[in-house]
Design brief:
The chain is α/β, with parallel strands linked by helices and 445 residues long. It has a single domain, classed as TIM Barrel (Alpha-Beta Barrel). 38% of the residues lie in helices and 14% in strands. It is globular, with a radius of gyration of 21 Å. Its EC number is 3.2.1.21. GO terms for molecular function: beta-glucosidase activity. Keywords: Carbohydrate metabolism, Cellulose degradation, Glycosidase, Hydrolase, Polysaccharide degradation.
């Protein structure tokens, strides 16, 4: 295993709705996921996050596992409706108390807390007013950021505003397979701008409350590839269109202060006009201290079989043979190197230090965990390759510390270094836990 630079941060990630449970305890308000999971057919086998890993009551046990693992940092998310039950207005002190205890426990264990403010659990009360289609939600997000930073900012210095705004827009508002379950297709595009506006406003709020704050956004990015048998100019145009929608729509505004021209790819949205107001892009493009990158696999595209269907690309499968995760995602470590070097080539000096804020795989329960170890080994090596090619990468957070509620898949996908028996909630470290612990120790030696 190549050695990463001195000071490289080794971490693990989780998200509030996926692990906390305690869905209606201590004054917590309903989130869009609390509502969504109760609609028949939305989540496999009707699973919910009501209990999840019960992290809310097992905080000390889980931090002890992190200490044993030897983490430098832990990326978790704050539940917006646990802090502000209706998304705005009255603060729930018991919610803040929980994150206060978590931060103190992490610091006592020598682990740097790295909270994400929004990991998809929007307060249902705000969704009832339009959710991220409503510009006002961006301002409510900034107020929530200020409340949280005022309580935790004396001890928390590294903050992540949003997690994967592309996925939340496309799955939650575009296709309706995640909460809040709206299927608007390209009419969901205002969600992209309003999330990014919320990021910019929250960045200002965080820095006002914590002058030495380090602020990041965690974008899900993918290298876009054509199959080897691609022949037409239409295929190349489809790849460019998908890159714009998935990657550039969320990176260009924060790094360059501009939206990419969607109309060049036939994706002009009739509701886009008027959404972007004077000053918005300057707010969004406030300098970042780091760019979080969540990577899982490349995306293969072709020209659309039916251009009238609405999208200027079709997703396809690779012709190459790759190992597959239990989620049936191809395992392509060199795609991470390709992605990181591509970001450096595209954005140059505008690219801030990069953090791998998610990277991991689902594997079947009860295996020897060899494939998860191989996955981590390959992707950490890919990071080292990118560093050797001049990309400034500061840390790697594996997804995930624990098996958890995996959104529409419920408890059927197992991403954890630690196995969770969801009948008993017993935690059992896997072989990958020991492998990662040894790797971290060796990198420090």
């Amino acid at each position: 295993m190549p050695r990463l630079p001195a000071g490289f941060v080794w971490g693990a990630s989780t998200a509030a709705y996926q692990i906390e449970g305690a869905a209606d305890e201590d004054g917590k308000g309903a989130s869009i996921w609390d509502t969504f999971v109760r609609r028949p057919g939305t989540v496999r086998d009707g699973h919910t996050g009501d209990v999840a890993c019960d992290h809310y009551h097992r905080l000390d046990e889980d931090v002890a596992l992190m200490r044993r693992l030897g983490l430098d940092a832990y990326r978790f998310s704050v539940s917006w409706p646990r802090v502000l039950p209706t998304g705005a207005g009255k603060v729930e002190p018991r919610g803040l108390d929980f994150y206060d205890r978590l931060v103190d426990a992490l610091l006592d264990a020598g682990i740097e807390p790295t909270p994400t403010l929004f990991h998809w659990d929007l307060p249902q009360a705000l969704e009832d007013e339009g959710g991220w289609l409503n510009r006002d939600t961006a301002h409510r997000f900034a107020e929530y950021a200020a409340v949280t930073a005022e309580r935790l900012g004396d001890r928390v210095k590294r903050w992540i505003t949003l997690n994967e705004p592309f996925v939340h827009m496309s799955f939650g508002y575009g296709f309706g397979v995640h909460a809040p379950g709206r299927a608007l297709m390209l009419d969901a595009l205002p969600v992209a701008h309003h999330q990014l506006l919320g990021h910019g406003l929250a960045t200002a709020a965080l820095r006002a409350a914590v002058p030495d704050a380090q602020v990041l956004i965690a974008n899900n990015c993918t290298p876009v590839r054509l199959r080897p048998d691609a022949r037409s100019d239409g295929d190349a145009a489809a790849a460019s269109a998908y890159d714009v929608l998935h990657n550039r729509l969320f990176n260009d505004p924060v790094l360059l202060g501009s939206h990419p021209d969607l109309s060049a790819y036939g994706m002009t949205d009739p509701s886009w006009g008027g959404v972007v107001r004077d000053g918005d892009l300057a707010t969004i493009a406030a300098p970042l201290d780091g760019l979080g990158i969540n990577y899982y696999n490349p995306t293969w595209v072709t020209a659309p079989a039916d251009p009238a269907a609405g999208l200027p690309f079709d997703l396809t499968e690779p012709q190459e043979t790759y190992r597959r995760t239990a989620f049936d995602w191809p395992v392509v470590p060199d795609g991470l190197t390709e992605l990181l070097t591509g970001l450096k080539a595209r954005y140059g000096d505008a690219l801030p230090p990069v953090w791998i804020t998610e990277s991991g795989c689902s594997q079947p329960a009860g295996t020897d965990d060899r494939e998860r170890i191989d996955y981590l080994d390959g992707h950490i090596t890919a990071v080292a390759d990118a560093v050797a090619r001049g990309v400034d990468v500061r840390g790697y957070f594996t997804w995930s510390l624990l098996d958890n509620f995996e959104w529409a898949e419920g408890y059927h996908q197992r991403f954890g270094l630690v196995e969770v028996d969801f009948a008993t909630l017993r935690r059992t470290p896997r072989a990958s836990f020991d492998w990662y612990r040894a790797l971290i120790a060796a990198q420090r030696a």
